[in-house]
Amino acid sequence: MTEENHTVVTEFILTGLTNHPTLKVVLFLLFLVIYLITMVGNLGLIALIWKDPHLHTPMYLFLSSLAFADSCTSSSVTPKMLINFLSKNHEISLVECFAQFYFMGSSATTECFLLTVMAYDRYVAICNPLLYPVLMSNRLCIQFIAVTYLLGALHLAIHVGLLLRLTFCRSNILQYYYCEILQLFNVSCIDPSINMFVLLIFSISIQAFTFINIMVSYIRVLFAILKKKSEKGRSKALSTCSAHLLSVSLFYGTLFLIYVCPGSGPVGDKEKMLSLFYTVIIPLLNPFVYSLRNKEVIGAFRRVVRKE
């Protein structure tokens, strides 16, 4: 398939992160530990929020949904990467490839909208505390969450639908560790200009819309915090927002560099590292970023441990 340009590709070969056998074993162990910690951290946080009644509030409902999206992002990429570290067969079928891209991309899109809703939640809680129970009821929160997941599913359905118009015959080798859409464009024997245009428009629109809304929410929050006379009130408000702002900065920074300002030519180590950061490292960090300095989560964990 790699030698005959006119042979339609039905399977791809993922080159992964390295070809060195010794390094593969080291990376396998490293990413296995990262994946296990990611799943324990995110699923553990979901279980804790579900089990402790004190955490049955909109903020933690959104946080559990974010943890689930992070689990999906990591699980769509890491298991296949781990298998390829130890296997000589790095093939992935066209269907598996599209499915991997779909689930990874829909989770990432969902996370964009979830971060926006979480910023709005903090804005209402800090700027309109008296109206908070009315404006952010649990029913409304569930509707927000459902919409974010629906938007993620529909967004990727568009891109996968457009991928179906392409045929792949230039090569069956993807210089990546998962089925990344820009790499699929590189091996298409049909001009992917329409796909690239739609990808760029949606990437810019979604990231710009969600990021601007997050920034507007937090600018208002900042002014509200500065107006607070109580030092304790300021510190509490800042502590609840700082974790979210850190998560937003990491997530949007890497997405912007990869999909809004992609490099030209063959993929390099820089692009792979950036991609690894948002597919593997951010899902690892998020549950700890939101939990370690959160007294309510730590308190809930202690209550659950004492009951056990």
UniProtKB/TrEMBL annotation:
Transmembrane segments: 25-48, 98-120, 140-164, 194-216, 237-260, 272-292
G-protein coupled receptors family 1 profile domain mapped to chain residues: 41-290
Cellular component annotations (GO), alphabetically ordered: plasma membrane
Membrane topology designation: Multi-pass membrane protein
Compartments where found: Cell membrane
Molecular-function GO term, any one: olfactory receptor activity
Keywords: Cell membrane, G-protein coupled receptor, Membrane, Olfaction, Receptor, Sensory transduction, Transducer, Transmembrane, Transmembrane helix
Major localization class: membrane
Family assignment from sequence similarity: Belongs to the G-protein coupled receptor 1 family.
PANTHER family, per database record: OLFACTORY RECEPTOR
Name by which UniProt lists this protein: Olfactory receptor
Taxonomic source organism: Cricetulus griseus (Chinese hamster)
Source organism phylogeny: Eukaryota, Metazoa, Chordata, Craniata, Vertebrata
Gene from which this protein is expressed: LOC100751186
